[in-house]
């Protein structure tokens, strides 16, 4: 699988305050979107997330978001090493995403940048 980059996930109580901090630290402008009931801001290599505790509890379990060339290729490679696909693939703002539990128990989100798929 071609890994194109990673994003660190940061759960925050006050998204607006956090955005100004991370914009200053990264020099990047935030791009905002909703994911269910969760407000998300992508700022540089960070995904800042804020929302209802019921949704945040689940999101805190995911270590990082990994951008890949193709989610289908990621599924094949993840399955080959014994990872479990726990969600997806489903549509995402940039293409498709899935959540996988690696054999060591780590949980990662994989997203592709293939909106036409």
UniProtKB/TrEMBL annotation:
<dbReference type="InterPro" id="IPR037523">
    <property type="entry name" value="VOC_core"/>
</dbReference>
<dbReference type="InterPro" id="IPR029068">
    <property type="entry name" value="Glyas_Bleomycin-R_OHBP_Dase"/>
</dbReference>
<protein>
    <submittedName>
        <fullName>VOC family protein</fullName>
    </submittedName>
</protein>
<dbReference type="Pfam" id="PF00903">
    <property type="entry name" value="Glyoxalase"/>
</dbReference>
<feature type="domain" description="VOC">
    <location>
        <begin position="4"/>
        <end position="113"/>
    </location>
</feature>
<dbReference type="InterPro" id="IPR004360">
    <property type="entry name" value="Glyas_Fos-R_dOase_dom"/>
</dbReference>
């Amino acid at each position: 699988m071609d890994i194109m980059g990673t994003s660190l996930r940061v759960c925050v109580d006050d998204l607006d305050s956090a955005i100004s901090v991370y914009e200053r630290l990264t020099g990047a402008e935030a791009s905002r979107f909703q994911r269910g009931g969760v407000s998300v801001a992508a700022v540089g290599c960070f995904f800042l997330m804020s929302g209802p505790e019921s949704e945040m509890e689940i999101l805190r379990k995911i270590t990082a978001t990994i951008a890949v060339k193709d989610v289908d290729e990621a599924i094949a490679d993840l399955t080959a090493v014994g990872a479990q696909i726990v969600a997806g693939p489903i549509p995402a703002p940039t293409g498709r995403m899935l959540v996988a539990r690696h054999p060591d128990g780590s949980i990662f989100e994989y997203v592709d940048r293939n909106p036409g798929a």
